[in-house]
Amino acid sequence: MKRAALAGALVLAALAPCGCGLATLTFDSTIGPLTPAPPLHDLTVGEEFHVTETGPVGTLGDNALLRPYPRDVIRRLSAPSSFWAAAQGIQAFLTSISPIANRTAQVGGSTPTEMPPELQPGTALESALALLGPPDLWLRRESGSLLLYRDASRRVWSFYVGVPPPAALLVPIPFISSLRFRYISERERAQKLMLFFDADDALLEARLGVDSDAEVQ
Amino acid sequence: MRRALSALALAALLLAGCTYHVRQVGDDHFLRTPVAWEIGTTSVHDVVRDLGPPDIVRASPDGLVFVYRAQRRVTPGFVVTAYLNLFSYEAKREQDATLVATFGKDDVLKAYGVSAAPSDDLRGDMGL
Q1: B48–A207: do the CB atoms touch at under 8 Å?
Q2: Sign of the torsion formed by the C-alpha atoms of B57, B58, B64 and B66
Q3: Which residues of B touch A17 (CB under 8 A)?
Q4: Whole-prediction pTM value?
Q5: Of B55, B81, B106, the CB nearest to A177
Q6: Would you call A73 exposed, middle or buried from its count of C-beta atoms within 10 A (0-12, 13-18, 19+)?
Q7: Residue A169 DSSP SS3
Q8: What is the pLDDT of residues B59-87, one digit of tens each?
């Protein structure tokens, strides 16, 4: 009997930090969705959970109630994108426990980093399209077309000093997990290429991002 | 040596539980680049030559609109946790720097304006 009580107490103790504790149950059933574990709260009472680079996130709806697992977990896990979500989740976990982390991401990839030599004044519009592919923006006007290619790159650099988060959960010293300072620097830049064509669809001017010296005319 | 260690321990205690997250989107070079544009004379090509391709292009029957934008967002936080979050404080500061240039049908500059540069003082970042 004592063992059963001890096992029950251990299970409750394990669930408490996950937003599934007695306090959460009481709050959720009486005064609304509140929990002492905010990072997990949205997942346990919300819906439409998904994984991002910063970890799993959920959406709190009007009917947010306590449940033992996210509402649409089965559908999400069976979706083809779940493998990508899992990879993002693993990356988020590894980043969270790494004292120093440096992540880069590239969105797009059609914009050249250097001006292609084929883009000379007088180049035909169809030749530019064949070379660079479809643009992000194409303004077709009587006076001439304007094409804009745009890529984005993101770099996240972070470090923390102190007790690693997973280790703090295992060390039986209260407030040990508070002994931590974290700094995160996130930088997002765009690589852009703009092409001006005249009324006869001949290239007038091409410009890369201002950091580049490459240009035509 | 003892003083240095004490100072280090004190600094660690003061920073304990703190998080400082800075996010910068876009390049604010347009705030630092001197331009000598003249209304009615400067062309679209001149603007792109000075600042590079814009972040946003809008086309209307009256002409083009170029927008250059840079954003700075700071999220400092403080969390006291003993397995569960006992106390948490988070301040968020978001500032946009924007330059807008409008052109006529003939691609000549009609008007332009630029906002102030985002300030990066620590006191303001902390919401104090």
Answers
A1: yes
A2: negative
A3: 83-84
A4: 0.69
A5: B81
A6: middle
A7: helix
A8: 888 899 999 999 999 999 888 877 777 78
